[in-house]
From TrEMBL:
It comes from Thiomonas arsenitoxydans (strain DSM 22701 / CIP 110005 / 3As). InterPro entries: SAM-dependent_MTases_sf (IPR029063). The keyword Transmembrane helix does not apply. CDD domains: AdoMet_MTases (cd02440). It comes from the Bacteria. GO terms for biological process: methylation. Keywords: Methyltransferase, Transferase. This is Class I SAM-dependent methyltransferase. Pfam families: Methyltransf_23 (PF13489). The keyword Transferase applies. One of its GO terms (molecular function) is methyltransferase activity.
Length: 348
């Protein structure tokens, strides 16, 4: 039997009587006593409620903004290494890696190598890999005439900023993690340290803003969305990706789902919740995307959590088959995909 976690200090907790996503006070208890079983660095046992109005989940109580940093010790944004969709190891993986590079070079104007130009035609025949390749590039729109400015909020080590800069964008990043900011700056990137308030005083200065697995970490997501709206130029777009509380893996693994990650994930969105919040922040969701090769990875991670081991269990062919099956099913069930991945534009 595992030891009970040390409690999060009472003085560093705050109550959340209303849904941070839509403001409703109607709710039901979804999970009780969740603990950090992903990075295993955060104290506390956490209760998650599900909003009766927008169906999003949220922690109550939760760490205060001043104390939440303690939950990020050893967090992955400290890592300066980038992780490709497929590692170039072995003949088949090397082939897929080079096909992906060829596709991205053609589709997004990158100069990745080694690359197989034929990837522009062959990768679309592998839908899960093609959509993963598009998601890695965050479905970048065509570069505006005269160039465009891009801000990545929660930029981590700056891997995506390097990609966007290679595609021709003028890039800036923002992250509250000092270690991540240092790693990004060492790569020659312009990155600010702190929260969104660091950009106070700016307005209508970016063509594109991206948030990749950031909004679930934010104490007041609606306020952030409104701030981002003000930072976008007219006609600008926001690309956002976040775990989906209604995903296949969430329904399968429940309290063992990798996407919960308490207490770093303060809110877990439903599509309805994200739509309500976007509307309240004067945004229009213009397109949903599928992030391929996501359900299978989260399936295996969730299975590891369920097994109560610190490393992946010995490979089981049935587990691998189920993981692949989840990837196939979510291709069809748009509402139950692992991530909610959207492009959002300022309302006219």
């Amino acid at each position: 039997m595992s030891e009970a976690p040390r409690p999060w200090p009472q003085a560093d907790l705050e109550a959340v009587p209303q849904c941070p996503v839509c403001g409703s006070a109607e709710r039901s208890l979804l999970y009780k006593g969740l603990t950090d079983r992903v990075f295993c660095v955060a104290d506390g046992a956490w209760d998650m409620y599900r909003c009766a109005q927008c169906a999003s989940g949220y922690l109550d109580p939760r760490p205060t903004p001043e104390s939440i940093g303690r939950a990020y010790a050893g967090y992955y944004t400290h890592d300066a290494e980038d992780h490709p969709i497929v590692r170039r190891k072995g003949r088949i993986r090397s082939l897929l890696h080079d096909l992906i590079n060829g596709y991205q070079n053609h589709r997004y104007g990158l100069q990745r190598s080694p690359a197989l130009p034929v990837g522009r035609w062959l990768l679309p025949l592998l839908p899960s890999l093609r959509t993963a390749a598009d998601a890695e590039c965050r479905h970048l729109p065509p570069l505006p005439a005269g160039g465009g400015r891009l801000l990545d909020v929660g930029c981590g080590n700056g891997g995506f900023l390097l990609l966007a800069r290679q595609a021709g964008w003028e890039v800036e990043g923002l992250d509250f993690d000092a270690g991540a900011v240092q790693a990004a700056r060492l790569r020659g990137l312009e990155v600010y340290h702190g929260g969104i308030e660091v950009l106070d005083g700016r307005s209508a200065c970016y063509d594109v803003i991206t948030l990749c697995h950031v909004i679930e970490h934010v104490h007041d997501p609606l306020a952030m969305m409104r701030t981002l709206n003000g930072l976008l130029k007219d006609g600008g777009s926001l690309w956002l990706e976040t775990p989906n509380i209604d995903s296949l893996c969430s329904n399968e693994f429940k309290e063992n789902w990798r996407g919960l990650e308490p207490p770093r994930h303060l809110s877990i969105f439903s599509r309805t919740g994200l739509e309500k919040m976007s509307d309240a922040a004067s945004f229009d969701i213009t397109q949903y995307f599928w992030h391929g090769v996501s359900a299978s990875k989260i399936y295996i991670s969730s299975q590891t959590i369920k097994s109560n081991k610190n490393r992946a269990p010995k490979f089981n062919p049935l587990t691998g088959l189920n993981a692949i099956l989840f990837d196939i099913i979510e291709m069809v069930l748009a509402n139950n995909r692992e991530y909610i991945t959207v492009r959002i534009k300022k309302a006219a």
